[in-house]
Amino acid sequence: MTLWRAEDAANATGGKARGNWLVDGVSIDTRTLQPGDLFVALKDVRDGHDFVAQALEKGAGAAMISRIPDGVAPDAPLLIVHDVLAALVALGRAGRARTDARVVAVTGSVGKTSTKEMLRAVLSAQGRTHAAEASYNNHWGVPLTLARMPKDTEFAVIEIGMNHPGEIGPLSRLTRPHVAMVTTVAAAHLEAFDDLPGIAREKGAIFEGLEPGGIAVINGDLDTTPVLAKAAKGFQTESFGEGAANGHRLTHVSLTPDATICKALIAGEEQVFKIASPGRHFAMNALGALVAARALRADTTLAARAMIQWQPPTGRGTREEITLDAPEGLTVTLIDDAFNANPTSMAAALEVLGAMQPLDGVGRIQKGRRIAILGDMLELGPDEVALHADLADLPFMSAIDQVHCVGPRMRALWARLDGDQQGLWVDTAAEMSTQVRRLIDAGDVVLVKGSKGSLVSQTVDAIRKMGQSLR
């Protein structure tokens, strides 16, 4: 299906089209570019103009540029604009304007990507659904998602993130959602904000872009819920959570090694749904997603049944079995949660680990263990040392047999642990990666979690190299 014609893209961006081309996708990366895509030469770490010739050689239908780089043929299909990022924003705005899709925007300190993917799963069962790729939620990711949206989309799910004040409002106004949702407000990005209410005010800016008659969906169990409610003033507000005051309430959650079983009252009607991965935080995200789907006029019961289709994205709690290089085919269970971390998500991940059942009698140690390998939580501001140390007081920590720590901030937690629970502390993930073979045994369940910048994903890779991953 044609996504953009040269004339339409030129009108949307104010640029000048060279050639009468058609494209059926939009790409910013030659590594993932598909034949027929419009290549957008953004300038980030590298200048995308350096890759225009390569993109065209790989079959790009056209390239959006602000200057003609070397190596580009005189008759190459191009869209020449004054500023590439501004033109991408304009293309996204036009992509949003030409569709009749019902649009939901999702933000939150924790869980926005998981919730976005839950919404993709449940809405796809009820109509043509378009959603952001990966965590494309910033100043270029949101317009790129909108520019990629087919005209006949029925439901659209847009993730909106932030690192600094003033980022969410403009992206919400660009998105123009019919429903806007805040999953939660937690201690993340505190380096850029004075306190949690400051983060809540920024998250609440997602309501600035709501269409007339739009619906705000907020977590009603937070200390900062009043801040979110104030930001949503003037719009219909739907609250979700476990508290009795919520309009949509989680009434039961049980964790098994393979799933989360949930019951909820959604608009007074009981819904039972199953998530094919353990995690109390997943239950709350799923409830929020179902409330948002209802606000989009989707069938709530069908959405609840479709929730089983969702699986955590890679690095966000994905569970896999690693078959070790051993003739017996013994395994280690790996929970890969190495993409992001803050105190709230760390507590949720440790609860999942505590609910897992190791396998006894198979390894050299004979007793299967619950092992956590934890990397630094970044961007927590001046209280970062205390926030790391306080993880030792979590109720789930007592179920963890051994904790290995990575990074200068995590040393504060390591120092609070004692006995066998205090494992290894190292300064870098590279050092930890060299130690995993001696730290992990058959039958163990291993959680790896940390902020992306802590690089603990290297440790995940090292564990996978101990054998063959069976996802």
Automatic annotation (TrEMBL):
Record-listed E.C. numbers: 6.3.2.10
InterPro entries documented for this protein: Mur-like_cat_sf, Mur_ligase_C, Mur_ligase_C_dom_sf, Mur_ligase_cen, Mur_ligase_N, MurCDEF_CellWall_CoF430Synth, MurE/MurF_N, UDP-N-AcMur_synth
Location relative to the cell: Cytoplasm
A Gene Ontology cellular component where this protein is annotated is: cytoplasm
Keywords (A to Z) from UniProt? ATP-binding, Cell cycle, Cell division, Cell shape, Cell wall biogenesis/degradation, Cytoplasm, Ligase, Nucleotide-binding, Peptidoglycan synthesis
Q: Does the keyword Cell wall biogenesis/degradation apply?
A: yes
Any idea what this protein is called?
UDP-N-acetylmuramoyl-tripeptide--D-alanyl-D-alanine ligase
> From what organism does this protein derive?
Aliiroseovarius sediminilitoris
- Name the gene that codes for it: murF
